[in-house]
Amino acid sequence: MKYLKELEKGCEQVTVMNKRLRIDSDNKILPVICIITFIITIWYGFSIVLNAPWEFDKAKRNSITLSKTELVSQTWSQKRPKLPTPHQVAKEMWDTTINKKITSKRSLVYHGLITFYETIYGFAFGTGLGILLALGIVYNRATAMSVMPWIITSQTIPILAIAPMIVVALGSAGFSGLMPIVIISMYLSFFPVVVGMVKGLKSPEQLDIDQMKTWSASKSQVLFKLRAPKSTPYLFTSLKLGMAASLVGAIVGELPSGGGGGLGFRMLSGSTFGNTLHIWSGLFSAAILAGSLIAIIGVIQRIVLKRMALET
Amino acid sequence: MVYFAGAIGFWILAWLLNIWIARQNESKLLNLFPPILFGVSIILIWQASVVGFEVSPVILPPPSAIYYKFISSIPTLWGDFVQTALKGALPGYLIGCAAAFAVSLIADKFKFFGRGILPIGNFLAAMPIIGIAPILVMWYGYGWQSKAAVVAVMVFFPILVNTVQGMKMSDKIHKDLMQTYNANYLQTLLKLRLATAMPFIFNGLKICTTLALIGAIVAEFFGSPIRGMGFRISTEAPRFALDMVWAEITVAAIAGSLFYGGIVLLEKWITFWHPSQRGRA
Amino acid sequence: MVQSEVINVSNLDLTFETGDGPVHALKNVDLKVNKGDFVSFIGPSGCGKTTLLRVLADLDEPTAGEVTVNGVSPREAREARAYGYVFQAAGLYPWRNVAANVKLPLEIMGYSKEEQLKRVKKVLDLVELTGFENKYPWQLSGGMQQRASIARALAFDADILFMDEPFGALDEIVRDHLNKQLLELWKSTNKTICFVTHSIPEAVYLSTKIVVMSPRPGRIVDIIDSNLPSDRPLEIRDSKDFIEISQRVREGLRAGHSDE
Question: In terms of CA atoms, which chain A residue is nearest residue B28?
Fold first, then answer.
């Protein structure tokens, strides 16, 4: 316990030093780097532990005993590891992106693009639907009272679980390709947008609304000059959640497609054929895709909010 | 066609009724009508469209067919519910919550760790965690353990992020008060900060109820014994027995709503003091 | 006259580093407070009166100078639980009822359950809140919440009471009533009270000593020893002595203002 306290104190001192030298005024960079390093170290450790049984089996069959260094180096380079090491995953990702043609079905970029398009279209439609519903809820009390409870209930229906079925059903009705998956993504991403926009559009205080009244402002003027600007912070938060949800929808929607493509398909085929490297590289690509898309929204958020002086 | 016109007529009447109700003063009883009327209208339109336009049951079964299938398959549905929700989602939810609380306490006590874990937690909470389902099935086998593991990981990050934020939220004035009493870390934690963190913690808990069930169901797509909601859906769907699929969805929706409702009740009991619970939001 | 010195401040200086640059909150503050004194700190916003109180309570640290409370550093005084602090806002915990709120410091300081019950009853009696033990803060008016906050500060027999504009948010009538109650409390318990306010009548009515402060940088402009008798009905506010002291306070405040 005392050791931990000393460690903590040491970390704090480095943080203070960083702050003084203006390297890291948010105090976030150093801790994050430390934790990531820690996680990677543990990961390598677990790789050894989880992949060891297979090595031991193999060694027994060949009547060899493994030395410690052999065990380590071999668990870190299995062809079908239970837990691939970071560098194995990185190598696989490199191989399937840089070293393959984009049009090849073995290319991670090919699959990534499919998932990307599904996500973006689903996100766009979902956001549009969400904003329309939010406007309806804010401006029409009958809509608010009847629809709102169902919107919340809709999220308890595990659409994700019936995504396969939707794809199959729509497929037999003649809609194939990306369309069913886009619908699933749209369904998942509209909810955060509705909730956030309703909150945002309702956020102006009575004070501001009364002020608009004294100027005899029309409903659309109030909407565009007061409610919409005031709801931008809420909008951006919801967009981030919606984007994440849309990506999850896209990935799960790909599962039953049986040959379509995309990162979800890639992970499923990896799982079916025991190719763990496919699973992990697919997963990481999905994470990178999600992270980048959300980061882009974050950048736009910062620019817009700074110009609107809602955030310094 | 007659059916459809009839249903649309009902919809219009119901909507007019809703508009009238919306204009009345608030009353708890009256407030129940709009959503119920809306729901009933949707079901009627559904039934009427499917029957009236002779939509193939392979694409969308009518509510009546779903109802019959539901009634006649209760043992199967119950077995699936036990496997997925009670053995998979619930343990996973509890484990994930407990782990998230433990890590938040550590993040709170050791500020350096907390500053590092929060951005990482935020990042991972937005990730398609569902993607690790195949990996966990590979590690833990086809039984409920892998499903619980998936759920635990899925709920861990949102709850962690919300709890950490809640722990930061005590008013300065309350913290100063604790300092004048020379209260130690444990006393301040138990008597002040946990209580103020509760609204945030429940925010996370509510979001994760739906995540838990969805996680358990989707995880079953990647491997499951011959029971479970996800299993049933993934086997009945290719056979175009869509009425069974929708029956399972109904079970899932009911289970999810009950779970969510349970947490809301718990929230009302524990955070009775918060303005949002006192109707003054 | 030998009186025990409870608080001694010498050459206190406090500069805050803020995002907009350093703020010189307190400069060259010298002060002595004796046991049983009722000292008011009065001045416009930014004059450092709350900061000074917080330094005495070890809620903020000085950048220079020496402070002793009960003969030891403020930190040691705080660790010995030598004082009760009443904030500007009542600061009651909304998840605890009135009795539980008053019990809070007693729980932390390890009093026995019987002691807790006894003391809660006693202090709620003192502030005339008997019967409201099971009410929650949001069910009480502002004045009642403040009284509960004061009861909480009295619960554990600290000899010193620090009060930061406790009646600032209340209306005149309630304020008068609470002022009177506070004076009676002070007389019956003989505590040393340091009281921050921005109301001249309140400062003159309550105190034995008035410290007039001015801002930018925060400093003491005048220390007035009140010659009012210890028995003070509210009508004393119309007496000649009262008006004279008030005028002296006002002059001190004006002088502080014109320095800018």
Answer: A145
CB nearest to A158's CB, from B19, B139, B217: B217
- 10-residue mean pLDDT profile of chain B (281 residues): values are 77 80 73 79 82 76 85 86 86 94 89 82 78 81 86 89 82 86 87 87 84 85 81 79 84 85 88 71 34
Residues of B in contact with A30 (CB under 8 A): 116
Give every CB contact of residue C205 below 8 A, 6+ residues apart in sequence: C179, C183, C232, C234, C236, C237, C242
Instruction: Report CB contact under 8 Å: C79, B273.
Output: no
C98 in B contact zone (CB under 8 Å): no
Tell me whether B192 touches chain C (CB under 8 Å).
yes
Contact B139, B181 (CB under 8 A): no
Threshold 0.80, pTM exceeds: no
List, in sequence order, every beta strand (DSSP E) within C57-208.
64-69, 83-86, 160-164, 192-197
pLDDT in tens, C146-172: 999 999 998 988 889 999 999 887 888
Chains that touch A (3 or more CB pairs under 8 A): B
Same domain, A50 and A127: no
Closest CA to B217 of B276, B279, B281, B133: B133
- Residues 159 to 178 of A: which have CB under 8 A from any B CB? 160-162, 164-165, 168-170, 172-173
Is the pLDDT reported for residue A116 higher than 50?
Answer: yes
Let me know whether A262 and A162 are in one domain.
Answer: yes
Residue C160: CA count within 13 A, CB half-sphere: 24
Split at pLDDT 50, 70, 90, the class of C3 is low
* SS percent in chain B: helix, strand, coil, step 5: 80, 0, 20
Instruction: Write out the E strands in C159-208.
Output: 160-164, 192-197
Q: Are residues B40 and B116 in the same domain?
A: no
Domain that holds residue B16: 2-55
- C10 assigned to some structural domain: yes
Residue B276 lies in a domain: no
Which residues on chain B are in Cβ contact (under 8 Å) with C107?
191
Domain coverage including residue C230: 1-82+192-198+206-260
Q: Do B138 and A82 touch (CB under 8 A)?
A: yes
Give a yes or no: residue A103 inside a domain.
no
| Cross-chain residue pair B21–A247, CB shorter than 8 Å | no
Per-residue confidence (pLDDT) for residue C117, from 0 to 100: 94
Q: Confidence class of residue A257 from pLDDT cuts 50, 70 and 90? A: low
Identify the bridge partners of residue C64 per DSSP, sorted by sequence position.
C13
B174 CB within 8 Å of a chain C CB: yes
Residues spanned by the domain of A254: 108-307
Residues in chain A closer than 8 A to B234 (CB atoms):
164, 256
State the best of B113, B140, B154 to mutate against chain A, taking most chain A CBs within 10 Å: B113
Give residue-wise pLDDT tens across range A190-235: 888 888 888 888 878 777 788 887 888 888 888 888 888 888 888 8
- Determine the length of chain B: 281
B11 is a domain residue: yes
- Out of A157, A172, A271, name the one closest to residue B252 (CB): A157
For the domain that residue C12 is a member of, what is the CATH number? 3.40.50.300
- CA A184 to CA A181: how far, in whole Å? 5
Q: Cβ separation of A160 and B230 shorter than 8 Å?
A: no
Cα separation of B212 and B93, whole Å?
6
Which amino acid belongs to residue A107? S
Both tokens of A55, joined, read: 């090595």
Which chain C residue lies closest to B190 (C-alpha atoms)? Answer: C108
Provide the pLDDT confidence category of residue A24 given band limits of 50, 70 and 90.
low
Tokens 């699936």 found at: B80
Q: Is residue C106 part of a domain?
A: no
CATH of the domain at A273: 1.10.3720.10
* pLDDT tens-digit series, residues A27-75: 677 888 888 888 888 888 888 888 888 888 888 888 777 777 877 888 7
- The more confident residue out of B281 and C61 is C61
Q: Is residue A85 part of a domain?
A: no
Q: Do B173 and C108 touch (CB under 8 A)?
A: no
- For chain C, the chains sharing at least 3 beta-carbon pairs closer than 8 angstroms are B
Q: Kindly identify which residue of chain B lies nearest to residue C108, measuring between CA atoms.
A: B183
